[in-house]
Design brief:
The longest helix is centred in the first third of the chain and has 30 residues. It is globular and about 45 Å long. The protein is built from four helices and no strands. By secondary structure, the chain is mainly alpha-helical. Helices cover 85% and strands 0% of the residues.
Length: 119
């Protein structure tokens, strides 16, 4: 019995956000314990994005079994858009500059594609 694409996407995003939560807790513990610099924290957060979007792309590509490049792209883009929407609501606007937003978009979609293609 094959699941529908939206259901597979939602399941993939759920697991990727669970992974994000666990990795961000670990990163915050490292920040507290080792007093990391801001540049090191940015690297950790970008690594969380990369791993989480790759997982989402992998799970979506594996779940559908076809068009894996597009599945990975869609998973990474969806992850980014949800992240942007939540950030917009919590901060009452967009506080990041355009370069940072485009970099995060590239990280999310690129790693989603890598995850989708490797599934």
């Amino acid at each position: 019995m094959e699941s529908s694409a939206p259901k597979i996407l939602l399941r993939s995003l759920l697991f990727s956000y669970l992974l994000s939560g666990l990795l961000l807790v670990a990163a915050s513990f490292a920040l507290y314990k080792f007093r990391l610099k801001e540049s090191q924290v940015k690297i950790a957060v970008n690594s969380v994005y990369l791993l989480s979007c790759a997982l989402a792309g992998f799970l979506m590509g594996k779940g559908l079994g076809r068009r894996r490049f597009f599945c990975g792209f869609l998973a990474g883009l969806s992850y980014f858009l949800i992240l942007l929407a939540v950030s917009f609501v919590l901060n009452k606007g967009i506080t990041s500059d355009t370069a940072q937003l485009l970099t995060t978009l590239a990280f999310c979609t690129g790693s989603g594609i890598i995850g989708g293609v490797s599934s």
